[in-house]
Design a protein that fits this description.
288 residues, two-stranded antiparallel sheet, 13 helices
Length: 288
């Protein structure tokens, strides 16, 4: 009977395992092999070169710049999204007039396609006809080159990502706030804990797991940023907004250097795994 159940279990899981192997395990294995070789895409030839691709990679100015841009974007965007999500969650965790109508408006940006969202903001960032510069000029401030200033472009894209994905962090944190029993806050009020003291000593410790989960999900997503950069700047001006994903795309699909592209992708994978393990350890630790 147990054997039959195992056979049925294996039969039921086999389609998912096949799809997982084709879409996840096979690409990872291919990248791992290509990362240590010189791949001739046209003639379909492969030559093992050991660590040569990685040595060349870490000696490449553009790769180091892409790592820096990616980390800056990840820290700025994910931190801003979690902090704004926390503020919105605290605001919406209480009843106020118009709450039921404001909630869908807050969540709406997350429902938009990334390409649509990027196109909207690209028009808003237009130097001559954009909404943001029009507002700045009307209040007496100079217009800004949002996507053409090397010192500003990356943060302009981070603002777009924050506008689109803050609702995700907001929903995660709001769920954590609403899971806190009301008796705890009522008992704290009796003991004189109100306002910031109530948040610092009661609310914040009880939602740390949700905060870390939101930070984990947003950090992983912002770390692999590609679509917004591709649509809005293409990695420019210069290489000011070139991220690791954009670097991999450029070497793999423009230069057809699959060895370098695979090595860069493998570095991305290792960093993502390290980030995931760090946050997962924090989340598990918060349970204890």
């Amino acid at each position: 009977m147990l054997f039959e159940n195992r056979k049925q279990l294996a039969l039921l899981l086999s389609p998912a395992l096949v799809i997982l192997s084709l879409l996840t395990l096979y690409p990872i294995a291919t990248v791992l092999i290509n990362a240590f070789g010189d791949v001739d895409y046209v003639n379909k030839q492969y030559q093992f070169v050991g660590l040569a691709n990685f040595i060349e990679l870490f000696d490449d100015f553009f790769f180091i710049s892409a790592i820096k841009n990616t980390f800056v974007f990840t820290v700025v965007a994910s931190t801003a999204q979690v902090l704004l999500g926390l503020w919105l969650a605290l605001l919406f965790n209480r009843q106020f007039p118009g709450r039921r109508f404001a909630l869908p408006v807050i969540i709406y940006p997350m429902m938009l396609s990334t390409l649509v969202c990027s196109s909207i903001w690209r028009s808003w960032y237009h130097y001559d006809f954009g909404l943001l510069n029009s507002v700045l000029v009307k209040i007496g401030l100079p217009a800004m080159e949002w996507l053409f200033d090397p010192n500003l472009a990356l943060y302009a894209i981070a603002l777009v990502d924050t506008w689109q994905w803050t609702p995700m962090a907001f929903l995660i944190i709001l769920a954590g706030l609403q899971s806190i029993p009301k008796d705890i806050h009522e008992a704290a009020m009796v003991d004189g804990a109100k306002g910031f003291r109530s948040f610092a000593y009661i609310t914040f410790p009880l939602i740390q797991k949700q905060l870390m989960l939101a930070m984990l999900l947003r950090s992983i997503d912002t770390f692999k940023l590609f679509d917004k950069v591709y649509v809005m700047t293409g990695g420019g001006p210069g290489n000011a907004t070139e991220t690791l994903s954009m670097f991999v795309y450029k070497y793999g699909f423009r230069f057809f250097d699959l060895g370098m592209a695979s090595a860069a992708a493998l570095v991305m994978l290792m960093i993502s795994i390290a980030m995931t393990m760090f946050y997962a350890k924090k989340v598990v630790g918060s349970k204890k």
